[in-house]
Design a protein that fits this description.
The protein has no helices and four strands. The chain is mainly beta.
Length: 65
Amino acid sequence: MPVLQYVCRKCGKQFEELVKKFDEPVTCPDCGKTAERSYCGEVYSATGKPAKKCSGNCKTCGGCK
């Protein structure tokens, strides 16, 4: 299960959440509204090394090479 970063668009709280699936809805622990995935921060490849030129959004990324 991955730990993902989220941001609440209503109150602005940034937090991490342990989720079972990537598309699982997550609510803000402060205000209870639905939070969105945050793609900021450092991203690592499957080898554990920092990925080069990766936004963290696999839908738009060229891959962790």
